[in-house]
# Entry
Amino acid sequence: MRYSRYLMPTTKETPSDAEVVSHRLMLRAGLLRKVASGIYNYMPAGLRVLRKVERILREEMDGAGALEVLMPAVVPSELWKESGRWDAYGKELLRFKDRADREFCLGPTHEEVVTDLVRREVRSYRQLPLTLYQIQDKFRDEIRPRFGLMRGREFFMKDAYSFDTDEEGAAESYKKMYDAYCRIFRRMGLDFRAVEADTGSIGGSSSHEFMVIADSGEDAIVSCVSCSYGANVEKAECIPCSAAIPGATKGMPRKVPTPGKRTVEEVSAFLAIDPATLIKTLLFETSVGDVAVLVSGAHEVNEIKVKNHLGAEYVRLAGEVRVREMTGAPSGFAGPVGLSVRTIADHSVRSIASGATGANEKDAHLVDVVPGRDFLPEGYADLRVVREGDPCPRCGGALRFSRGIEVGHVFRLGTKYSEAMRAVFLDEGGKERVAVMGCYGIGVGRTAAAAIEQNHDDDGIVWPISIAPFEVAVIPVNVKQADVTAAAERVAADLDARGVEVFFDDREERPGIKFKDADLTGIPVRITLGEKNVAAGFGEIRDRKTGETLRIPLPEVADEAFALVGKKKAECAP
Ligand code: ATP
Ligand code: MG
# Structure
């Protein structure tokens, strides 16, 4: 490809709304242009990157036995009503009507459409297992589109869906996809971790998110320093601490005045006690009724764990009025002793030998409160937020926090959709059964953006070769010199003939500009042909990543560059 005939409009300045480096660099390198909030034109070189990501996705999906289909972007509301998501999904779902007043949405994900497809086509267990995938435009009316391709509204996603006869088969299909995902991200040269995730509103029994480790990541993840355990902070398990936390005395509960002291800090400072011995009492309104949740003052309640523990549709912290109704006191003074609200407690409460808690009375707390003696929660469970340094639930090693970009997600869906939409098949005995499903997504643009977050320097992008728009940049420094141009043409033609993707900078630009653009656009290997070198029979090869530059005799330049390309490709092996 010749730069003079190409559309790769590089720029110096960075737009003010581009907050993260991948967004800035994609704009500056002329890969992307904004059309509306979260909606973009993919420029030629940007599209080449996305197509390369897609190629890897296709190869690995095909390799795992998945079949490619293409479902519509426009989806009739009937299907979404059948699954119940038409009402459950929020404003991210873009809904509209056709001329006949029929309702549609733009698919943000395709469980309904694929379940409908399979229930029509699959009759017998002999047709299972079946995994279908597509690479397609998705639309989600994100509340805060930002970070360029990282969180767009219209974006490409690879979404796959598996159908099995039973849970065992579903687990196998899940494992196949999980392994394919590991290969995919390794092939893109990314540093990632598969973390256990919350299954959220989509439902299901187990799920992993594939996180590319980067400081700009929107997700907080924990990982063990000693083993491969990783989890989303929302989901990270906390094991009960075995050591008891000693309290003050073992006398009976005493009421003490705590005027205006409500927070853990205020109360523990005022009573001069360890915050870890304070029994914090939070009141929730939930779909299964009012619930009090107890946790040590040293910890925070994890609402997602509470919701999962209760099996509730929703949980929300009670407001001031409801707190007064439930406890008879203003908020900040609630406690489990004598409370007539269903009560559950985090493990951290059990290890408090004797502690303090609200007296359910304005400006008063109780001290010398002993869990199990003075109150008895319905049960103890893991209900708190994980903290850095907590012991790993798998091996006991220390947990570390980092930031991650969620590039992929694998879910075991169970029968949520197949049950609701009657995707059934006949088993060996001729009995009708519901298919067991899984769903698996990877954001194409987000993955490319994540690769930049992880691979860049002050000068620009440093593409992993497997997803670079081109593999080698050939730069004749001054195109007006016939021997320089001729040498460059020869090298480019030689590499081209060997199947290398060459970007030929034939512009009549100053050398500095050409070099800056080459660095900015991140093409992995650069061949520079300057006047003096060519006259002496040499050319230069520069590795974008290491900055290492080699001066090579002209007849060997193509061979050397080809070898460097090969080495870089090997680094992106699965
Ligand atoms: P997030 O929590 O970041 O909003 P999600 O949980 O909604 O993502 P999934 O429904 O699991 O995402 O979608 C599968 C994949 O699609 C994600 O792992 C991500 O790579 C990609 N993706 C999701 N939303 C967007 C978006 N707004 N822009 C770009 N890619 C996205
Ligand atoms: Mg997700």
